[in-house]
Amino acid sequence: MEPHVSVEFTDVHDVNKRLSEAGYLPDESIETVVYLAERLHKPILVEGPAGVGKTELAKAVAAARNAELIRLQCYEGLDEAKALYEWNYKKQLLRIQFSNAGAGRDEGWEDVHDDLFSEEYLLERPLLRALRHTGDAVLLIDEVDKVDFEFEALLLEILSDFQVTVPELGTVRGTRHPFVVLTSNNTRELSEALKRRCLYLYLDYPDVEREKQIVLSRVPDASEALADQLVRIVRSLRQLELKKPPSISETLDWARTLLELGFEQIDENVARSTLNVLLKYQQDVTKASGHLKLPPRPEMN
Known about the structure:
Elements: H1 12-21, H2 28-40, E1 44-47, H3 54-65, E2 68-73, H4 80-83, E3 85-87, H5 89-103, H6 109-116, E4 122-124, H7 126-132, E5 137-142, H8 149-161, E6 163-166, E7 170-173, E8 179-184, H9 192-197, E9 199-202, H10 208-218, H11 224-238, H12 248-260, H13 268-278, H14 282-291
Parallel strand pairs: 1-8, 1-9, 2-5, 5-8
Antiparallel strand pairs: 3-4, 6-7
Helix pairs in contact: 1-2, 1-3, 10-11, 10-12, 12-13, 13-14
């Protein structure tokens, strides 16, 4: 495919095939929502625990559609300047100094002002870039639950009308709808207005068989027996009250670690010695160590 030439999904089965080829194994609900989002030009709000593949879904859709991924990473205190646009103040200051030095003495303030707030001095941030993008794009608004309700109002204007008002430039209208994915870790409740605008998808930790297929897909050197054993151990650990349950990416890291160390099966000693790859807090390591009851390694003759 040529760079950034859009290839839309033909049906739900096509979504499954192309996301799988991009390294993301979808289930029926995922492939259905992705297909409808494209057809209805609606954003997807993906909620669920951290590390279940919400961000990876947006990346896989971009790869499958041969689209550019535009990512806005949300955080507490995020404002319009970082999300939408800001002006290149250093360049504007140089322009004013150039004018005051006499090189532009025939210019009036209005001329200078109009020049200062022109495209040459505009710094696009992810939201404005997605609005003005002329090719196919996937806009990922990651961890939207970290922003405040005032910022949600800005998102609503963009997602509802596909336009935004820039005081110095006027109303900027999008010419082509990006595929929009919003992710949330449920740290706070999102507004009803934002939820109404989106198709909803909840991602939980996968069942044993699906996670095993993910491991075999992403870590092809792992045997089926090792993949089956490690995902069952990970699933049992997720049943504990941990500060941070192991994510899918950490399951994959654990599989790669075991292979790197030459382990083809997991006993209690192997698990205990490598838990720091899977868990990120000492209190979780301690709790998991007490939970593990695995058969000992067979004696070598």
